[in-house]
Amino acid sequence: MMSDFLKVTIERGPDARNVRQVFGVPAYKSQTVLDAVSWVQQNADPTLSYRFACRVGMCGSCAMMVNGVPRWTCRTHISKVLDGNAVTIGPLRNLPVIKDLVVDMDPFFDKWIAAEGVHHGGLTREDQIAPVDERSAERIEANSGIECINCSVCYAACDTVAGNPEYLGPAALQRAWTLLNDTRDRGRDAILAAVSGKGGCHNCHSIGSCTAYCPNELDPMSAIAGLKRETTKSFLGKGR
Amino acid sequence: MGRNLRMRAAKEITARAHPLWFAYILHRLSGLGLAAFMPFHFWVLSMAMTAPERLDGFLKMTEAGVVKLAEFGLVFLLAVHMFGGLRLIAFEWLLWRHSQKNLVAGATAVSFLIASLFLLKAV
């Protein structure tokens, strides 16, 4: 049973660890964490900065730390995460804070590029469209990762990223694994080289926080394990 | 500062605690424990060549209950590091993706069983 008011603590400022403000937010049925943050911004403090767009779990822009756990706030019912009638909301971990709940996503997306998470086309517009066999093992593998919404929840959850800023992180590596299994992508060598480098897949300790907290229930940990196998096979193959 | 920091640390750890995270910490700590034990182990073994009487003294010390308890801990660390490592290899190389939670629980339980059997035999 929820009380009429929720005690919402928000970590503010670029130096979020030091500034915490408490707001009393009216509680109502089916309220999401994002609703509570929006209420604060609209009714208590218009200077509060935060990010959202679609409010239906598609755009991946509203992820925040909720009671120390990274979550998509638009699809998280506040009743599920309350500690008594209190909740603490902060900016995503492992990314630089711009202001309040807004983090700089540049390092996250830069790593997508660094992991060759871009399409490597091999055909021209004159060529026939390449057939895709929906039932092939590679396509099933690729399909399992394509619902990523780039929300950075896995990146914020990852302790390996926290300890090693060069590590490409779960989302970028899962993207690389998806492309590696996509018959239309011709960048196999480039991808394998990118993900076996210094910050690559072999840094992963299979802690599995990415898979545990992915809001879309994807499995980046297994995708990274796939990259570990393929890069090793490729390495051993070259030696022959 | 101490209490607040500790509470915060405890909260952050609880917040990201899930079975595979615990497995990771257990694997790390058991590995560190074993690495710290190894030099001591070899040092004692080397006494067989350099100082046999001293080695006998050490071996007599292992009769003590507290040493047996420490050995129980050591066997647990060894077993849990081995089974935890085998689980990781199975996950990463043999595509054993499913039931990782059960495998973690199983590896820990089997390790505890082995260490307990060792202790029962020792006392």
Commentary on this structure:
The complex is a heterodimer of chains A (240) and B (123). Chain A folds into two domains: 5-103, Beta-grasp domain (Ubiquitin-like (UB roll)); 106-239, Alpha-helical ferredoxin (Fumarate Reductase Iron-sulfur Protein, Chain B, domain 2). Chain A is built from ten helices and seven strands. Chain A has helices at 33-44, 78-81, 106-114, 137-143, 153-157, 159-163, 170-180, 188-195, 209-213, 220-239; strands spanning 5-12, 19-26, 63-66, 69-72, 86-90, 97-99, 102-103. A five-stranded mixed sheet of chain A has the order 2-1-5-3-4. A two-stranded antiparallel sheet of chain A has the order 6-7. In chain A, a hairpin with a 6-residue loop joins strand 1 (5-12) and strand 2. The radius of gyration of chain A is 20 Å and the shape is elongated. Chain A starts with a strand and ends with a helix. With 123 residues, chain B is mostly helical. Chain B has a single domain (18-122), classed as 3 helical TM bundles of succinate and fumarate reductases (Up-down Bundle), CATH 1.20.1300. Chain B starts with a helix and ends with a helix. The mean pLDDT of chain B is 86. The A-B interface holds A 67-69, 157, 159, 205-209, 211-212, 219, 221-222, 225, 228-229 and B 11-12, 14-16, 18, 20-21, 24, 88, 91-93, 95, 97, 100.
List the keywords.
heterodimer, A: 240 residues, alpha+beta, Ubiquitin-like (UB roll), Fumarate Reductase Iron-sulfur Protein, Chain B, domain 2, 2 domains, five-stranded mixed β-sheet, two-stranded antiparallel sheet, 14% strand, B: 123 residues, mainly alpha, 3 helical TM bundles of succinate and fumarate reductases, 5 helices, 88% helix, 0% strand
- Percent of residues in beta strands of chain A: 5-15%
Largest interface: A-B, 18 and 16 residues
CATH class of the largest domain in chain A: Mainly Alpha
What's the Cα radius of gyration of chain A? 20 Å
CATH topology descriptor of the largest domain in chain A? Fumarate Reductase Iron-sulfur Protein, Chain B, domain 2
How helical, in percent, are the residues of chain A?
25-40%
Total domains of chain A: 2
Order of helices and strands of chain B: HHHHH
